Amino acid sequence: MTAGFVIAVDGPAAAGKGTLARALADAYSLPYLDTGLLYRAVARRVLDAGLRPEDAAEEAALRLVPEDMQRNDLRVPEVDRAASIVAAQPAVRAALLERQRVFGREGGAVVDGRDIGTVVFPDAPVKLFITASSQIRAMRRHNQLNVGVELEGAALEAAIAEIESRDTRDSQRDVAPLCPADDALTINTDGMSAAEVFQKACDYIALRRS
User: Fold this and answer.
1) How far apart are CA 166 and CA 84, in angstroms?
2) Annotated binding residue 16
3) Is residue 36 annotated as involved in ligand binding?
4) Is 108 a known ligand-binding residue?
5) The Cα angle at residue 112 between residues 100 and 54, in degrees rounded to 5
6) Is residue 13 marked as binding?
């Protein structure tokens, strides 16, 4: 299944896996795939059609085109919620699974998501699980969408609740739940800079390649 060198980067929302995955792709000259964008694009299609995320998501997944992943309205709260719902549907995951595998099968890739090391590329030579506390992740997600606006008090509590609700949906779904692979290196990014996380991952990759 894994002909090329695949680095699987999994973890919950706003833990820092995307930042790390992009840096690793640059460092090792590998193509990068953010699988979360696939599910966000499916969710966006469903919402644009005026449907509920619980309904008709399989057809949206089958009709996905590259331009869908290039939209600038995929990282907004309503898509966050809808993407988590459509990602829990077995038919949607099945529709997108081969697309993800083809991406890294030949020349290798850095692929990030929630089930890359457990389902998409279970024999990837490098598996990383990136996590952080719900408070830190809530603040990071807020800062991505609201630059310069401080998050505190009731707004912070609501953001944490939203993050934890997403975690529950992702980790308790019947198909491909969010969890670290048995042989993944888990990195908790609380209190770590992006450079420190990157270096820790590179050190581990060097061990796996030696």
Assistant:
1) 7
2) yes
3) no
4) no
5) 70
6) yes
The pTM (predicted TM-score) of the whole model is 0.90
Residue length, the chain?
210
For the chain, state the CA radius of gyration.
17
Which amino acid belongs to residue 108? G
94 among the known binding-site residues?
no
Cα→Cα distances 1→98, 100, 201, Å: 11, 12, 23
Assigned CATH topology for domain 6-209: Rossmann fold (3.40.50)
Pairing type for strands 6-10 and 109-113 reads parallel
Q: What is the secondary structure of 97-112 as a DSSP string?
A: HHHHHHHHHTT-EEEE
Name the residue ranges covered by the structural domains of the chain.
6-209
Annotated ligand binding at 200? The verdict is no
Q: Is 12 one of the annotated binding-site residues?
A: yes
d(CA 176, CA 27): 29
Tens-digit pLDDT profile for residues 50-89:
999 988 799 999 999 999 999 999 988 899 889 999 999 9
Question: Which residue type occupies 107?
Answer: G
